[in-house]
Amino acid sequence: MRKPGSQKAIDCKDGKKHKYGRPPESPSQYQGESKISFISQGLMHRPGGGHCSQTGLQLVVIAEGCGEQSTALGLRSSQLRFERCLLHSGHFTWDRYLKETCAIAAPAHCFKQSYTPPANEFKINMKLEAQDPRNTTSTCIATVVGLTGARLRLRLDGSDNKNDFWRLVDSAEIQPIGNCEKNGGMLQPPLGFRLNASSWPMFLLKTLNGAEMAPVRIFHKEPPSPSQNFFKTGMKLEAVDRKNPHFICPATIGEVRGSEVLITFDGWRGAFDYWCRYDSRDIFPVGWCSLTGDNLQPPGTKGEARLVA
């Protein structure tokens, strides 16, 4: 997958703040020439803030003319307010994409994500406790080896870089050092521990001695799950490419089956599609990458070769 180029500056036309009402229990349908407000790629936002930065790209987009297929990205007015600015960029933007395709953005209440994205205050080499993704009954020591947006790239101590994984900073699967012991558990070596199992206690002692522990204050509570699966076939969203998990890409709900949804990546062949639960932490509302500072990959063209990590 090609990486997006640098984005150009924007001109803010006005400083008027736009409020969004509480999202309904099911997606709202708009008639005729109704306008749709949604967060677009190109929107830079400091988590917890709501102002327009002249050094970043900020945008609240108005899409018109899509008739009954148009749906607003629902946002709680008490939690998110953005200034309306115009984006001038030759790169992929959600506003133009949704308008051209007459597609709808999945409302924010469909997702198990915070309405205001959490701040990422972690630093490279910080230590924390993490659930072993290959053995979910084990809690291990992990090191932060990468950062992007609201996500952390983690490596279990005693493992190798072939098994790195990504977690959101508000994931319940990461905790401060000492949480496991506090709750009566014991830290375990990761699956595939490179040394002899008997050396684990000494390895653990040496690993934590003098290490920088991630402070408790930078961890965030995991958001609650939606009350039910509100997704509809055809809705647009942003999703982690599970074959290249450092990428987040434009995607579409291809099918809904009970509590499961089929994630299909726009412009890519079905080899990258996957099923997940509606409350998966790997799927995000339109504009999430812009809010967090993560990089949203552009849609592919089905003839392109795509590199698999």
Automatic annotation (TrEMBL):
It is found in: Nucleus. Residues 1-32 are annotated as: Disordered. CDD domains: MBT_SCMH1_rpt1, MBT_SCMH1_rpt2. One of its GO terms (cellular component) is nucleus. Gene3D superfamilies: 2.30.30.140. One of its GO terms (molecular function) is histone binding. GO terms for biological process: negative regulation of DNA-templated transcription. Keywords: Nucleus, Repeat, Repressor, Transcription, Transcription regulation. Pfam families: MBT (PF02820). MBT repeats lie at residues 92-190, 198-299. Its main location: nucleus. SMART domains: MBT (SM00561). It comes from the Eukaryota. Belongs to the SCM family. This is Polycomb protein SCMH1. It comes from Callipepla squamata (Scaled quail). The lineage of its organism: Eukaryota, Metazoa, Chordata, Craniata, Vertebrata.
